[in-house]
Structure formats: C-alpha cells, structure tokens
Amino acid sequence: METLSNIVTYSLVHATLRMSTPVVLATLAAVISRQGGITNIGIEGIMLFGAYFGFVSAWVSGNWLWGVAASVVAGVVVSAAIGIVHLKHNTHIFVIGFAMNMLALGGTRFLLQQMFNVSGALLVDKPVTLPILRLSLAERNPVTASLFSGYSLFELLAPLLVLGVWYVLYRTAAGLRLRSVGLHEPAARSAGIDVYRVKMRAILLSGVFAGIAGAHLSMGYSSMFVENMTNGRGFMALAAANFGGGNPIYAFLGCLVFGLSDSIAIRLQSTGIPAQFVLMVPYLVTVAVLTSAMIGHSRRSDAARIARKLTEEIQGKEIRGKANEKGKGS
Amino acid sequence: MKRINPASIFNFTSIFNFIFSLLLPFVLGAIVVALLGHDPQEALRELFRGAFVGRLSLGTTLQKWVPILLTGLAFCITSQVRYFNIGVEGCFYMGALFSAGAGFLITGLPWYFHIPSCFFAGVLAGSVWAAIPGVLRVYWQVNESCSTIMFNYVAIQFAGFMIVNPWSAKSAASQTMPILPSAALSRLMPPSRANSGLFIALALYAAVFWIIRKTRLGFKMRSTGANPFFTDYMGIDSRRVVVLATALSGAVGGFAGSVETMGVYGNIIDGFSGWLAFDGMLAALISKNNLWLLPVYSFMIAALKTGALGMERFTGVPKALIDTIIAILIIFLSMDNLFRFRFHFHFPRRKSEEKAR
Questions:
Q1: What is the pTM of this model?
Q2: Domain limits for position B269
Q3: What angle, 0 to 180 degrees and rounded to 10, lies between the N-to-C axes of helices A233-243 and A195-216?
Q4: Distance from the A67 Cα atom to the nearest Cα atom in chain B, whole angstroms
Q5: A23: domain CATH number?
Q6: Predicted ipTM of the assembly
C-alpha cells in the first residue's frame, strides 16, 4: 500500500500533462490528416526535423520565438514534400512517410556531426527553452504549486489547440469539406470540392502541428536535442488519432491515458520492477487502448461483419434451395 | 495484388525514370560531399570498393543482404493480404532471442539436430509474435500499422530484459551467453561474417515465391488481398487467411533473426538490429511487392550500407550521409512519373478525313 501511495500523488496530474503534451501536439497533426483520409506516418520524421531546427535556431538566435518559427517552417517544408510526392506522384503515403522518417533520422544525425561535431546528443551551456508560466499566488503551497504553476507554454496551450482544432473540424465549412474528402473522396469531388487542394492543406497544417510538437520536445519537454528523440511518439499519435476516431477531443483523452501510464511507469521504476518492463508499459497501454476502443466501435457499426452475415445468409439459402430441388426430384 | 505486366516495366519512359531516380540521389550526395570539402570521385570509388572489392567487403555485403532480403520478404507476404506489417522488427528480435536461447540452453545435441531446433525456436517465436496483431486486426479491426509498431517496441524491451537479466553473459557489455558451437552456422568467407544462412535464405525466398504463386494458400492470400468479401463468399474464411499470412510473415522475420544470431553474432547484443527490418521493409516498398525486384533492391541497400562503412573509414565522409541518400533514393524510386517524357506526334489530318466530318 505504501508503494501505491508513493505512486499516486497529487503531482501525478502535472506529470501526466507533462508526459502527454508532446504526443497531444503530434496527435493534432495526426487527427487533421486522418480526417482528410491520410494516415500521415511521416509525423515522426517531421517532429524530429522540427525538434532539431527549433532547438538550433533558438540557441543561435537566443530567442525561443525564432525556434518555434523555425520548427514550423521545417514542418511545413517537409510536409509539403510529403504532400507533393504523395498526391502528385501517386506514392503510397506509407512509403514516403517512412522514407521521410529515415531521412529525418539520418539527416539530423548528419547535421549534428557536421555542424556541432557531436554524435548522440547535443547539449549546450545555455539552452534556450520555452517560457515556463508561474503563478506567484499558487507558488506558496507545494500542492497548488504543483497543480497550477510551472507549466511550459505548450502544456497549457495544447488543450486550447485541441478545442480549436475540434471547432474548425466540426463547426466550419473548411472542416466539413475536409471531413467529406476523408469520408468519401469521389462524392466530395462530385460535390465540387477541390480534393487535391483540401488534402494538401490538411497535410501542410499537420506539418505545422508536428513541427510545434518537435519544438516542444526539444525546448519545452527537455532542453537538448537527442538523436531519435521522438522515439515512437509520432506513431503513438497515430494510435491516439485512431482511438478517437478522428475526433480531437477523444484523441486528447487517449493521449492523457498514455501520459498517465508513462508517468506511473517512471514511478514504478523505484519499486524494483525491471526497467525494460516499465518502458514497455506505454506501448502495451497503446495497444490495449486501441483494442478496447475498437471493440466498442465495432459493436456499433461493423460493415465487415454485416457483410459476412449477409453472405452467410445467402449461402445458407442457396444450399437449402438446392436441397429442396433435390427433394422434389426424387 | 496487381500483377505487373513485363511490357509495362520495360518501356522507355520507365527505364529512363528508373535510371534517373537512381542517379539523382548520388549526384545530390556528390554535391554535398564536394561542399564538405572531400573529393566526390574518391568517395564514390571507396563506396564501391567498400561494398564489392575483396573478400571482407563482398562477404559483409552478402551478410547484410540476408536479413534485408528476408525481412523484405516477410513484409511482402502480408502485403499480399493487404496487411501493412511494420512489426517485422519485433519478430526479428523475437526470433534472434529465442534461437539464441535454444542455442545455449539445449546441450548435447549434434549439429544436425541442434541447428534445426534453434531455427524452430526462432521461427515459432516470430510467428506467434506476428500473429497477435493479426488476430487483433481481423477480429476487432485494430489498425495494424499502429499495433505492430507498438509491438516492435515491446519486443525490443522484452529482448533487452532477457539479455540483461536471465540470459546475461555477466560481462561488461549487455549480451547473452554465446551459443554452443553445434548451433553455429558455418562461415563462407572467413574474414567476413557471411555464413551458410545465405543459402537457406535464398531457398526460403524461392519457397515463399512458390507458395504465393503456385499453392492453394497463396491463392487464398492473393484472393483475400484482392477482395476479402468475395473470398468469404467463395467459402474461404478471409480472417483465417490473414492470420495465417501474418504468422508466415513472422516466421520469415523470426528466421532472419535466427540467422543473425547463429551465423553472424553468436549471441545477442542489446540493440543489435538498429531497425534493420525497416531497411527490408523499404526494399519491399520500392519494389512495390514485386517479388522479382525484391532481391535486387535489397542487395542494393545492403551494398550501400556496407560501402558506407568503407567510405567513412577511408575518406571521412560520414555514414549518416549514406542513410540520407538511401532515403532520398527510396523517395525518388517510389514516385510515379518523376521524369515524364511525352512525345507528341502531330499527324496532319488527311483531306479525306476532313471531308468526312
């Protein structure tokens, strides 16, 4: 019991938000592209590029705003490349997405070696980080300080961005167009929607969010750049977007589950459970969450099962029909 | 799966496309090398020498070719049923781990029993590991491109646990105990680590080719890929076919891991793979699931990776550049109509046609 009370404390709230925010921002990118019918698997690579360029340009210029701007520009450029290759040249999104992830991994490693002559991690003396918002009123008490103060900028902005994306997707004409393209492309095209333009916009916007996620990862979540620091968060974001069925608010809740499992896992490490099992937890939780969501989802509408039932019915009738014919003949 | 018409592969535009897609990344790479202050011609020469010239180089290329070919093959198998299996890496780890376990836990067997039993352990582990997301997909429609990737991480962590704790060699580096000599595959080109797993891998490639093209299971798989509902209507349970395909794919992935353990390393080191299965997957992706092209592309990636080592050693051009070039190469190769050449021949209309209108 004592270990449990050590794990579940008030500071878990802050830890959960902290761990989930990079995934939340990436999830927004995943949600936007998913609503346009694109499983943007390159988010991982965009995040990595965003993290690198954001961190470096913030450090060089000394201002975090330039860092975020550089991340967004990097995200837009990379996602524009993905969009052009995918939409114009008919490449499967998985191919270009994975190639981009590989390019980001090799490219950032190469740039680290060439620009800073280091490999592995880039640590600098005075890293420029995103501003941390402190409430002096809450700082007096350790409990309220943990709950209400000391959040990094995007940790507070992320829930607002989630609401904003939800509003755009479900309450504006542009969002309706995007969703209609994702639901049924030929129908959207016959309704006069420029499918190429809508999809391209969705990919670019998802690049913006993935770039911001990268900036948060290297400047807010940590204050350094490490090779392959995204470490599967882009894929987790895709899982979260799937979990929410494209709805950013449900996807946000999914991210909170990941963040919670992540922060509990870190606390479990002190109880003597091997580190590898602890590190496994978020991935297993992702699969479990995805499965539970799909079990609930498939009960509601399961086209495949309906089709299979219909088939079985028809086949059953045919067999019965043949048996009847035979019976008549004899 | 769409069968590619030979005539459409070997027409002028696509050959031109292919050659230019192949050359352009190297030209870009050469420009970068020149900007870094190295001699691009020498870098290219060292790249070639590092991949092919000498027993060590050629042997290393062949050694690296085996896992890339096999993991690419594993990916191709599930692509036949339209299942996007990113989880080959996890099967690779599981296969390597369990064949290593069988390699030093089973003692007192002659090699002709020991090697198959190690392979069996690896193949079984890989196929079970791959079948779990397959079952999740067919019964609950869990998106496989998400679940398989999560399973990769779980497999890597699990292997890390086994390497560090129960099966540890208790040495400074985190690695398992070495497998017994009776479980090791023989080396082909002594200074290099190329091994007889190469021949078994090629035989496996031929077998899978035959299964997909010529057997009942292969037909079921291709039919499920083309239209699962119709396959159900024919009386074949498409769900069972998908699970079988994932298990087969995992078996091939696990086999690749076994070859790495038994032929190359002799034990497992933590993080030995370095996302090797992703190279195989990319080879499969650029060959667009054409089984004829898969060996060619996987050999090309293996040669580039091996040559990069030599290039880094002799010219100082970093290996990471080659990774970048491979990524760009894959992007260009996968693009349709990157360089499109249209020849417009305007035949003047005949007068009789004009009158007829």
A1: 0.82
A2: 40-168+184-336
A3: 130
A4: 24
A5: 1.10.3470
A6: 0.79
